[in-house]
Structures are given as C-alpha cells and as structure tokens.
C-alpha cells in the first residue's frame, strides 16, 4: 500500500507521511548507538563503535565523534559517508560565521543552518534524505552547556539526555528513570552513560574497545573537548586521565569496574 | 631569522597613513599554532582580512586532518590564498617562522603579495624599511645562534633599521620560538 508513495521524497502519502524520511530513520535505527547526557558542569557523549575489526588501520582516533568548532562536537549515527558530508558542512558553516562575525557561532544557530540543509533534501531536488542522526554537544556564552539532536527530516530539539541509533528507545527509558535533572555532575554523567550503554548494547559485556567517549567542559575561559578512544592503549589512557569534572581522573576500565561493583 | 633549533620573528608597532600615526600598538605578527607564527606587514585592512581568512582555512584543515599545520604547508596555503587574488591582490607580504611539529626543524619563508615564496636558510624581511633590514640582517646574522644571541641579533637588526625609517617604529615585539617554549618580549625604543 505504501509502495506508490515512497519512491519520491517530495510526495506525501495519503496518511500525510513522508516515507523516504521515515525509511531514513529506519536506517539509523540499525546503526551504532550514540548517547548524550547534559551535566551541571559539562556534557558527555558516548558512542558504540561498530567497526572493531582488528585489521582496521587506526588513522583516525574516532569514527563516531567529530569536533566541529572550538566549542562544539558531535556524534553521528547512520550512514558514515553521509555523516562525513554533514560534519564537513557543519565545520564550514561554523568557520564562515566566525569569518563574518568575528566570534564563534552559537550552538543553536549552527544546528538550525544544517537542519535547513537537511530539510531541503526532503522537499526539493529529487534526492534522498541524509541517513544520519546527529547528537551535538556545545557551549556558548548565551545558554551555556547544550545538547541537541537532529534527524533526517531536518527537525532538531534540545535535550537533557537522549540517545540515537540501535536500542535508543530502551536507552531513553532508562535515562528517564535514572537521570536527575539539575543534580548530575560530569562524573555521575559518565557513570550513567556507561551504565546505559552496557544495558542496551548488543554485546553481553562492555568492552573498552567498542566504546568512544567524549566530554566537553569549560576551564579558565576556554572549552576543553576531550575525545577518548577507549581501548586504544597508551593514547586512550592519557586521554582518559585528562578528563574534566573537578579534577577527578577517569579511566574507562576503572569506571567500568566501579559500576560492576555497584 | 633562523637559529640553532629555534626561530625568531619580530615586528614594529606603528600603524599610520603616510605621515600620520594612527596607533602605536598595532601588532602584525600572529600566532597560528604553538610553534607557528606569521607576520603580515602591509596594508592594515589586508593584514586583518588575510589573517581571518587564513584562520578559517587552518581551522578546517586541522579539524579534517586531526593534526597541526606544518610550516611548509602554511606556506603553500598562503601561496594559494594570495594567488587567488592575482589580479586584485591583498597588499601584504607575509613572513612565516616556525618549527615543524614533528621534527622541530626551524623554518622561515617570505612571500610576495601574489604568492611567490622563498625559503632561505638565514633570514627573511618584509616591510617599508626592507632594504635597511636586508643590510642589517646580512651583517649581523650568523649560523647556529643560540636563542639568546638570536634575540639580540634580530632585535638590533630590526630596531636600527626602523629607527631610520619614518614610517616604521614606535617599539617592537620579538618572539623567540624554541622547542619547548615561546618567549615574547616587547622592546621600547625611539618613540617616533
């Protein structure tokens, strides 16, 4: 029944749905999970890394989490090649704003601009939508720490904690119960992220190599974005030890074992 | 100027329109990385614009590549940026000084306003009193100077050259870039 209305993005179905956009979101539902949590003093992004083949060359430390600007980073779920195009565009949008206005782009404006581009692919051009959902974490001097999510339809919303990708519904329901609004600090947010990831991931146990973590904190008037590619040996340990959040040191293995005892 | 495992870059602080001095703290040497500096003497508006456009490109490069820019690559980027405006150029003649992020090799180069670069082994100069600077540097520069001697050399060359030039002066800022630190000193000289 849906067949006649799902081959072109520009056509509504009789029930008022855009099938291509929905199919794009279906594609993302099969992708590696990404989780974001807003804390009082920072933001955490956690991502499930799907490509853990040992033959893979580790040229880039991270394949899910990207730095966009000095004060913003994002985590992608979906078709990787689409994600590369979008993150490139995000970086260019941010730099063009800085060139024109001499200041970093406010988080919401950046996301709004990208979402306008994504929306165009659902209405004109005869091209398919981008099969990527993105979680953004950022800081600006107007609204402080912010967490946003955008999807293939070009819709975006701000969150205190959210999840995209595989098993995202289960993760969101756990977050609803466990996340304490206004009372979570960065260390607790990290623990919560690990807890939710371990409960919703495919694998029976949380392997440090399968997880990517990133934190964003403000220190001394500038933003520190630390992307921790856990499980990649000495670099990961160094990165993990450099975590923010009141000077407490964090190591993936250490936190994981803390959780296990809890 | 190149030294032993270090480089130095210095500029004056005058900003003026021919005879009139508008500002006496106009710096034209900018930091683009921990060990990478560029000097942009010339038309002040182009100094600012070229710097902004360059920072755009450098940001995109460093985020995409996931690593810091090498001095040689900065030169290539500047060449491209300037030649794009071959028939309506930016009136800046940049000077680059830095250490390679991996090998820590000292690097200097100078470009003309449409992107012709040269990478000599000793020193590069640019600005209104460039002829005097060439003369001063030629006599005072020696190979493999330690950072302290390099500071003396570059300071004396710069200050004595621009003291004779009406359009330059009002003090100088000198950066000595070594492997583990960058020392910045402001010199006060003839305030005219």
Most extensive interface between two protein chains, with residue counts: A-B, 14 and 9 residues
| Radius of gyration of chain A over all CA atoms, rounded | 18 Å
Q: What's the multimeric state?
A: heterodimer
**Low-confidence spans of chain A:** 232-262
Query: Could you give a short account of the major beta sheet of chain B?
Result: 5 strands, antiparallel
Report the radius of gyration of chain B as a whole number of Å: 16 Å
Mean pLDDT of chain B: 95
Overall body shape of chain A:
globular
Largest sheet of chain A: 5 strands, antiparallel
Strand order of the largest sheet of chain B: 4-5-6-7-8
Beta-strand fraction estimate of chain A: 15-25%
Distance between the termini of chain A: 51 Å
Number of strands of chain A: 10
Assign a percent range to the helix content of chain B.
Answer: 25-40%
Flag low-confidence runs of chain B: none
Report how far apart the termini of chain B are: 25 Å
Helix and strand composition category of chain A: alpha+beta
Bulk shape of chain B? globular
Region (Disordered) (chain A): 237-262
GO cellular component, one term (chain A): nucleus
InterPro entries (chain A): Ntn_hydrolases_N, Proteasome_alpha, Proteasome_alpha-type, Proteasome_asu_N, Proteasome_bsu_CS, Proteasome_sua/b
Family (chain A): Belongs to the peptidase T1A family.
Task: Walk me through this protein's architecture.
- The complex is a heterodimer of chains A (262) and B (192).
- Chain A is of the alpha+beta class and 262 residues long.
- Chain A has seven helices and ten strands.
- Chain A has helices at residues 19-29, 80-101, 107-123, 168-178, 186-200, 234-241, 252-261; strands at 34-39, 42-48, 65-69, 72-78, 132-140, 144-150, 156-158, 161-164, 211-219, 222-229.
- Chain B has a five-stranded antiparallel sheet with strand order 4-5-6-7-8, with helices on one face. In chain B, strands 1-9-10 form a three-stranded antiparallel sheet, covered by helices on one side. In chain B, strands 2-3 form a two-stranded antiparallel ribbon.
- The two termini of chain B are 25 Å apart.
- The mean pLDDT of chain B is 95.
- Chain B is of the alpha+beta class and 192 residues long.
- Chain B is globular, with a radius of gyration of 16 Å.
- Chain B: Its main location: nucleus.
- Chain B: This is Proteasome subunit beta type-3.
